[in-house]
Design goal:
It is built from eight helices and eleven strands. By secondary structure, the chain is of the alpha/beta class. The protein has a single domain, classed as Rossmann fold (3-Layer(aba) Sandwich), CATH 3.40.50.170. Helix 2 packs antiparallel against helix 3 (56-68). The chain starts with a strand and ends with a helix.
Length: 262
């Protein structure tokens, strides 16, 4: 199966972990890396942006991720794929006729969206016969939006979903190929925001990589089956603000107290 990838200018450690098993699988041929060449904000610029928008909770999560991630772990996408001798195309106008013609030259069967590009639109959505697939951390039947695990913990859930889905114009609304669940402690010890950051890094990310590889293998063998979502039943959650973070801490502390009393 011939695969083209959609990526941000910089690869995070998580994206590198996602890519590795696909690169190593002999059933897949990565024919092109398409890099979103719009100027990428660094972590501190994103913190400032979200601060202005009142997304205090998201600021905290990004700060924790910065502390846990060494700059050496990040790599330029173009350098990464040049080292692998995989063709690279940087695009600032992803929907132009010129870009569509260039992608079609490589005869990719499917595109994988890993990072960058925002909400993808036509004609990019249908430039490959099998369209575009992506990964979402959350049960898309109930939890859309970001960040992963925050609203599940807020609502006292005991699990978080991981979903591999077809990309469509509406956010997180495409047909689902595969889903799995990862257990979540609704009353974790310590600060719940730190728990979320560690939970995403140590549990959601590794299992998401496994599920993505499983899905790709099934698509390659012709055995993959997708199912439409009940779009009207889903809720899209916003990035949390300070009030939501404070409420989360109160809720988790109350559950901790209840657990200790039993």
């Amino acid at each position: 199966m011939k695969i083209a990838l959609l990526l941000a200018p910089t690869l995070s450690p998580f994206t590198q972990r996602q890519l590795q098993p696909i690169i190593e699988d002999k059933d897949f041929e990565i024919v092109l890396a398409i890099i979103d060449n719009k100027r990428e904000k660094n972590i501190w610029q994103r913190i400032q942006k979200n601060w202005r928008r009142g997304r205090g909770g998201y600021i905290f999560i990004m700060a924790i991720q910065t502390l846990f991630s060494s700059k050496k772990e990040y790599i330029e996408s173009s350098l990464y794929f040049n080292n692998l001798q995989i063709p690279v195309r940087k695009v600032s106008k992803p929907y132009s006729d010129l870009n569509m013609a260039h992608i079609k030259k490589y005869s990719a069967d499917i595109l994988f969206l890993f990072s960058g590009f925002g909400i993808v639109k036509e004609p990019l959505l249908s430039v490959a016969p099998l369209g575009i697939i992506s990964q979402h951390h959350g049960d898309m039947r109930k939890y859309r939006g970001m960040p992963p695990a925050f609203w599940e913990l807020y609502n006292g859930e005991t699990e978080v979903g991981i979903t591999i889905h077809q990309v469509e114009t509406e956010l997180d609304a495409g047909p689902i190929f595969k889903q799995t669940i990862v257990p979540l402690d609704p009353a974790p010890a310590g600060d719940p925001m730190r728990y979320i950051a560690a939970y995403r890094r140590d549990q959601l990310l590794p299992r998401g990589v496994e599920l993505l590889v499983e899905t790709v293998s099934e698509i390659a063998s012709g055995g993959a089956v997708s199912a439409p979502q009940a779009v009207e039943a889903a809720r899209t959650y916003p990035y949390p603000d300070y009030r939501a973070v404070k409420a989360l801490r109160r809720r988790v502390q109350r559950r901790q107290t209840q657990r200790s009393a039993t």
